[in-house]
Amino acid sequence: MEYLWITCSIFLLLYLPFTRSQGLCEVKNGSSTIIVDIEESRGTSISQETVPPELPIVGEPNVDIFLDLSFPKGVPLFFLNEKKLQLLTPIDRDEKNLSHIVFQLICTIKSTYKKRTIPVIVRLIDVNDNAPKFINTPYETTISELTPVGTTIFQNVAAKDKDTGVNGLVEYTIVKGSNLPDDDNSIGRRMHSEDGYGYFAINLPHQGQITVNRTLDFEKTQRYYVTIVATVSSLL
Ligand SMILES: *[C@@H]1O[C@H](CO)[C@@H](O)[C@H](O)[C@H]1NC(C)=O
Ligand SMILES: *[C@@H]1O[C@H](CO)[C@@H](O)[C@H](O)[C@H]1NC(C)=O
Ligand SMILES: *[C@@H]1O[C@H](CO)[C@@H](O)[C@H](O)[C@H]1NC(C)=O
């Protein structure tokens, strides 16, 4: 009996100091960096959570470990609430052309004060938050009434969208116009205007090219107003 007890205590004495001295903070899946995602801010929102919502660190903050953030390359953008990263200021990926934020997590084992610095990469997820804007407007062109149906008469319709990727694909469609300007009946000319809906078409929605879609008649109509809507397709 006595023999056994001595063996056990020697085993414990050797075992405990050994594991503790090796013990550093660990990332849950054993990787050397932490990668999480966060949506860019909608307006001035800073309440959005990361995905996953908590940093995958082994241990409980203030119980087994202490966690701290370090931003060696600039101003702090996050603070830590337990294991949750929370934004200090809104982030707009479109303004600053920002795709990710890199900083460091400093994790200290409470019982030994052993520190480990773990790189954290927060990837910014684009939110479709910018309406497209037409550039180089107004668009105007003069064509002959004899222009055959199918002819491209204008190809410089363009709207820009600040969002990236799938959120930045602009589509153009012709819609029925509203608020058509009055006919111009000043002396010497008679200018009858009509809405161009139906007379003109955009056959390739991603290209701002306008084609003639119906036979035109100068005696009847001298000016068409074509209303184009730019929309951004989104998978979100
Ligand atoms: C560990 O998790 C991160 C997400 O935080 C992931 O990107 C990475 O691929 C994972 N690594 C391993 C080895 O599973
Ligand atoms: C944003 O970065 C991309 C490459 O990551 C580059 O092609 C683009 O021109 C940049 N846009 C601005 C506005 O800086
Ligand atoms: C083009 O004209 C045809 C009829 O000729 C009509 O069915 C179609 O909707 C028109 N297209 C557009 C874009 O107005």
UniProtKB/TrEMBL annotation:
Domain of life (superkingdom): Eukaryota
UniProt entry tagged with the keyword Calcium: yes
Keywords attached to this entry: Calcium, Membrane, Repeat, Signal
Signal peptide: 1-21
Subcellular location(s) of the protein: Membrane
One Pfam family here: Cadherin
Domain called Cadherin: residue spans: 78-134, 135-231
Gene3D superfamilies noted in UniProt: Cadherins (2.60.40.60)
InterPro entries: Cadherin, Cadherin-like_dom, Cadherin-like_sf, Cadherin_CS
The keyword Membrane is assigned to this record: yes
Cellular component aspect of the GO annotation: catenin complex
GO biological process: cell migration; homophilic cell adhesion via plasma membrane adhesion molecules
GO molecular function: beta-catenin binding; cadherin binding; calcium ion binding
PANTHER family tied to this protein: CADHERIN 23, CADHERIN-23
Protein name: Cadherin domain-containing protein
